[in-house]
Specification:
Layout lengths: L10 H7 L5 E10 L2 E7 L9 E3 L1 E4 L6 H13 L8 E9 L10 E8 L14 E8 L9 H12 L5 E4 L2
Parallel strand pairs: 1-6, 5-8
Antiparallel strand pairs: 1-2, 1-4, 2-3, 2-7, 5-6
Length: 166
């Protein structure tokens, strides 16, 4: 490896500085012209009955954000997205007012304008519907931080890095 072997933090350093956890997640909005595909969350205990990104989920250990986005899109709605076709929307550092480590998130949002396959629900225990919405007529119950990212992207000027909930 150029520059020498990669190094890692010591156990002592990790024990002293490891009080902060950050959970990475990838979100993909399928976009067709002026429409976006959303899924209706159900059965998860988190924003059930609210519309959300076409596909989203935690990045697995050892997996890149882009690989996680591609995997989640295939797992959740059965379509294959080429990594080169994922358009970055924003990287969002997000929190909730609880202060708990589980609420410390790094959400990376992508738009995909091309894919292979027909979007269909693959995980009916996590979502109950897929529906296309006009980008300028989004549903009232759209998960808050997802609305922030989608509307900011639609309207232009959304920074590459955003914060939500602070």
């Amino acid at each position: 490896m150029p520059g020498g072997e990669r190094q890692t933090y010591s156990e002592a350093y990790a024990a002293e500085h490891g009080t902060f956890a950050l959970i990475p997640a990838a979100y993909v909005f399928l976009v067709d012209g002026d429409r976006v595909l959303l899924q209706l969350r159900a059965g998860t205990g988190y924003y059930d009955g609210w519309w959300a990104a076409s596909a989203a989920g935690h990045v697995d250990p050892g997996e890149t954000l882009v690989a996680g986005a591609v995997r989640e899109t295939l797992e959740e709605i059965g379509v294959d997205v080429d990594p080169s076709e994922l358009e970055p929307i924003t990287a969002m550092h997000r929190t909730a007012p609880t202060g708990r480590p589980v609420d410390q998130r790094l959400d990376v949002f992508f738009a995909a304008r091309s894919w292979r396959g027909i979007p269909t629900l693959q995980e009916p225990d996590k979502a109950s519907a897929l529906e296309w919405f006009a980008l300028d007529d989004l549903p009232e119950r759209l998960v808050h931080h997802e609305r922030f990212a989608l509307e900011g992207w639609r309207d232009g000027g959304l920074p590459a890095v955003t914060a939500f909930g602070f």
